Every structure is written in structure tokens, then in C-alpha cells.
Amino acid sequence: MRRTARRIAASLLLQLVAVGIGSGSVLATDDYTLPFYNPAVTLSYGVDRDRTLNRQLDWTGRVWYDGLAHYGRVYDQHTGVDYPMALRSEVAAAKDGTVVDLEGGYGTTQFGSFGNFVKIKHADGRQTLYYHLASSADGGVATWVGATVAAGKLIARSGCSGLCYGAHLHFELLAWNSTARAFKPVDPLAERRWTTWPGRVPFDAAYVRESNAGTEVIRHGATITHWVEFRNTGGRTWRNTGTIGSTALATWAPAYHVSAFRAGDWPYSWMATFVDAASVVPDGVGRFTFGLRGSPAAGSYVETLNLQAYGLHWFDHRRLGSYYIPIVVTQ
Amino acid sequence: MSTPLGAIARPLALVDHRIALLTALPVILAVLAVGVASADRPSGVVRLSADEAEASGSTIRLLRQPVGGSTLVQVEPPAAGMSLLAVSPTGSKAALADQVGELSGTLTVAAIDGAQLRIPLPGLLAATFAGDASWLAVIDGRGALWRIDADSGGAEALADGPFIGSPVVTDDGSLIVLAVPSVEAPYRSSLMRLEPATGSATPLSDQELVYAAFPLDDGDLAIVAHEPDGTLVQRLTSAGEQLLANLGPGAVNVAVAGNGRIAFERDGEIFVLDAPGSPARSLGTGGRPCFGLDGSSLLVRRGTQRLALGVGGSVLVAADELAAFAGAVGCLP
To answer: Residues A288, A271: contact at Cβ < 8 Å?
Structure first.
């Protein structure tokens, strides 16, 4: 049965592995996030941590002495992380911040010295740079200088402007270097944070279980309580503050529709609830508890729900097992 | 290996940088890493006479044509896929790349008499001829700067960089270059004067993102700089920067003629400003404008065509894909 099939085994092993990744330290959360939503995107080239010409130190710690490009690792003098993706793929802010500079006038695939970019400054004094974007006219730059952006907010669409050989996003993390008195690239992967780990896009989840995996039967006019649990397979901690970015369960197919089963505890007619716990770290399981009221006339129904980073982005519904609740209302 | 420097058509005045910039000099010098003992010197230079090139089916023809007061040079390559990087001020030589960018490539210097030099380099981004066409300043695929002898093919590594854009060669042999943090993400680019003889580098502007520099007829330099609210064209003088035009946001591929005329591209349309303060006139659809030396005509892309236009917008010549005005500086390949 589909409800059974989509259950995912408790990932104790995964959690153990996760702790190991941090080399004994607790992996940071709510920090720099992968700057896109598609978990299938993987890096093609990382930062060359060795600035010596013809010597490359890749993100795994391996040193190359050939000056050549090594797919999946590094190429000489590379200052950012390249993520191959189709033209016009969604690009997200890696962390809360303020847009301080951008260019969107170049063509989406216009080859040349310069290209389209967005630069964001963050409260920790660092900056992030998103390069080779599509043109503004093509939806490439979807923000403005001075805009305040939340981590995970859509800010741009990818392209291949500038010196670009194949569509990709060039992502840089820049830190102030007091010796050079300039912002210099650092390797986001070096910090081994959850939020920069491959596949750990900002918003992702997997179905775990629910209070009733079968059909909910509700007497007309009555209200029942239902809960469902999802594992946080993304890179950001889920929160329930009710502010931008909080994790909510809301109506889907179509998105934002007014639910015929909304109960008195729903924050909005289209939103069943925020996550119950104050925070759910990556790989943790979050429960969403909400009422279902049998308002419609007797009959069989389906209510489809999806997770949303409130005000920012919908989760990929397919990765939630295309979650829905069969409902029968009786007299 | 070294070649005496010749005079260039339009000499540049030395620009005094401001005291404030001196504080940034050590930083930028560190960025430049002048003196590139680690840079690879190209080997395997191939020299072909006109007869040898013809016999091997690799003839490159340079066709010179007067357009307005400038000379348009159309290049007929032996095969598709080559890019034209630069044409000498008289149109007697052209520099071509088998591919732009990448980590290896061949620079071909083709002469109007049919002779060729082929110089292997670690990729190619841009090139500019000296005034007498005896040498070229070349930026390789990783942004390093080379001096290439146009007669022997001898190559001298000048600086690691990385640099981007077309270098400007001055009459005294110094080079105006754009230093960037990386060639693939030039979110910052500093305009520098580089003295190859001493390895010294001097910042010329405190603009953080300079897109291009163009020599003006009076010896000053015009620079195109990005600011968050728009693209600026400024004149660099010994007294500082003087705003010539604020082209607003979305203006790209800006070109400045020696006489100060400005052309740029916005949303697939070409505009011209005849003088500072004058309104922008549309020349219709197209992109990548580049002025001839006298500023009375410009070469543009329109669809799949390369067209030489008068500054009024009339089509003067429908050119081949590989075409450029002789001595044009600052235009992208």
C-alpha cells in the first residue's frame, strides 16, 4: 500500500554518519545553505584552496600538482564552487542578508569577460556571490540592491553569462582578509556544515508516518486531530516561529486552496499548521498536528498537503511521497 | 626575446593616481603576483610562409576596407571556429584564437602577406597589438599576461594576474589592464597600469568594478565602471575622475571612441551618445558595438550578421563573422 511504501526506516545510521562527518564537532545548522533547491545538483568543481599556480588542493584535502581540471574536485585557481544546472534553474540565497550589488544586463548565454551576478552581505561580515546568472529580462536577477533576503529565498535564475563553458552556477563565499584588506574567497565546503553538504538543499523532507495512514472517517460537523511526521532531509533547521521561513503544512494541488476541512486551529484557511516543535534540526523528525473538520456533505474526499518554508518556497511534493489524506465524511 | 617598443597611434598620457589609492597598492600588488617564475613558457612555435600556409590549406586572408575614416579588416580563416582577438592599427596583422578561454589554445598571428605564426599558450582570453604591431599583449586562459613577439613568436610571461578584458598598450610600453579575483567570476576588477620592465603595478581608479578602458584622442583614458545603480563612463585625468555619462542599469558592452562618442547595448538594442550630456539615440537592434578609430562608424552584431554602421545607424558594410576595425581597443572577442 502506498502509505506503507512511503514509510522510511528510522535513519539512526544516517545520524551516526552525520556526527562522524563533523570530525567530532557538531555540524552547524541555520548557516550557509546550498544556493538552489534541486537536491540532485552536485558540484563539478570546488574551490582551489592552494593559490599556487599549477598546484591544487581540493575540498577533500587531496593535492594535485598538474594544474589540470578534475571533475568533482577542483581546477587550478578556482575561487568558487561550480554547480552545473540547466539554464534558468532557481538560485536561492545561501543565508539571510542584504543584496549589495548585482548585474543583470548581459544575455543569459552571452559569452565574454563579464556576466550577471548577485552579491549578498551577511550579518557575520561575509558575502556570497552568485555568478553566470541569466539576464534580468530572462528572469535571471529576481532581486534588487538593498533588498533584505532570507536564507532560501529565490533571488535569481542560473545562466551562462560571462566566461562560462556550459550552464552552471558559480557560487562563492567571501570573507574579509585583513592582511590583504579585501574580501577573499573561502571554501564553504571546508566548514563541513550541514547546509553545504551535497544534497542538503535548504528545503527537503521525507515522509515518516502519521496518526492514521489509512482513510480518516469524520462525522459531519465533527473535528478530529491528525498528525503527520516528516524527516528533515534538507539543510536548514525547521522552526515554528510563524515568521518568514518557518516550516508549515499547507494545502496543495492547487497550492493555497481554501481547505474544506480546515478546523479552528488552522493559522490560515490554506495552512493547517506550523511544525509542532520549536526546532527540528537536519535529519530530525518533525510532527505536524492539526484538526480536520467534517464540514462538507457526506462523501469521499482527498485533501492534499505540502510543506512550505513560509513565504519563501514550497517543498518538492513528490519527495514527500505526494502526501495526501483520504477522508470520508459521514452523516 | 624582447623587441623595441614602437609608437602607437594614439599615445596615452600618464595618469597620476590619487594618494588614497596608494594605500591599496600593496594589496593589489599582492593580487597581481608580478614576476611569474611559475608560468609556463610556450614551446613549439610554428612559423609558416604564405606558400607553406597555402600548401597546407591553412591560408588566412586579411581583407582591408576603408569605412568612414577607419579601416575595417575582414578575416577569412581556413576553418570555422576561430575567434578574432585583435587587429593591428594599420590592419596588417590579426591575432586569432582557435578557441577562447580554456586551459590550452593556439594564438595565430596572421600577416596580410599570408605568413603565419602559431604560438601555443595556456588558453586565450584577449590580445592587443602594440602600435607598430611588433608585439602583442596577450591574456591567457587563466588570466596571466604575456608579451608575444609578433615576428618570432617569442613569449615572455609578464604577470600571473589574473587579468581580464582587452589590455591597452601605451606608447611607452606600459599596459593598462583589469585585475580580477578570478577570470570566471570577476565581481571586482581594478584598473591597473603595469610596467613590464620593472614589474610595478599602479592602480588608476578606485572604482571596484571596471568593465573596460578606452584611450581618448587627447591622451586621457575613458573607463566604463559598474555601480549598483548603473553603468558609468568616466574620464580619467591627472586631476581625478570626471563623469561623462551615467548609462543607468542594464547598459552593457559599452564602447567609447577616441573622440568621446559612446555606444552601448541594452536589452538587445544599441544606443549612441554623441557627446557627454547628449541624449541616447537608438540605432536599432543589435549588440556588442565597437568603434572604428575615428569614431564615425561602429561594428555591431545584429542577429547572425556583423554590420558596420554609420553613427546615424545606416548600414555601411555587411561584414564577415571575423571582422574588426584596425586598432580597435577594448572590444570583447
So the answer is: no
